[in-house]
């Protein structure tokens, strides 16, 4: 019978595992970029930009900018 250890040694398994790692890295990078944009929202508001300007500059939806503002603590 073909056991787990033998399966892990196959080329198909190794390629699938590597592909999964790469997809995970890409998703992590995208999520990190998105989070950085959201963190920039309060700072841009403090500089006097409107929510519409921020959305356009950061390539976000206006609703995403509004949510970022609502989630920002008042002391920031």
Question: How would you describe this protein?
Answer:
The chain has 76 residues and is an all-alpha fold. It has one domain. It has helices at residues 4-8, 11-46, 51-58, 62-70. The longest helix is centred in the middle third of the chain and has 36 residues, at 11-46. It is rod-shaped and about 65 Å long. The mean pLDDT is 91.
Search tags:
single chain; 76 residues; 0% strand; rod-shaped
List the helices and strands and how they pair.
Layout (H helix, E strand, L loop, with lengths): L3 H5 L2 H36 L4 H8 L3 H9 L6
Helix pairs in contact: 2-4, 3-4
Let me know the average pLDDT: 91
Largest sheet: none
- Percent in helix: over 70%
Based on secondary structure, the structural category is mainly alpha
Radius of gyration: 21 Å
SSE arrangement, N to C = HHHH
Q: Based on CA inertia axes, which overall geometry fits?
A: rod-shaped
Low-pLDDT segments, ≥5 res: none
DSSP, total strands: 0
Separation, N- and C-terminal Cα atoms: 61 Å
Number of helices: 4
Number of domains: 1
Give the percentage of residues in beta strands. under 5%
């Amino acid at each position: 019978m073909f056991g787990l250890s033998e399966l892990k040694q196959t080329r198909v398994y190794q390629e699938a595992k590597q592909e999964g790692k790469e997809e995970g890295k890409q998703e992590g990078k995208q999520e990190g970029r998105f989070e950085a944009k959201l963190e920039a929202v309060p700072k841009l508001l403090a500089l006097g930009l409107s929510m519409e300007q921020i959305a356009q500059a950061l390539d976000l939806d206006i609703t995403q900018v509004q949510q970022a503002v609502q989630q920002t603590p008042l002391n920031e």
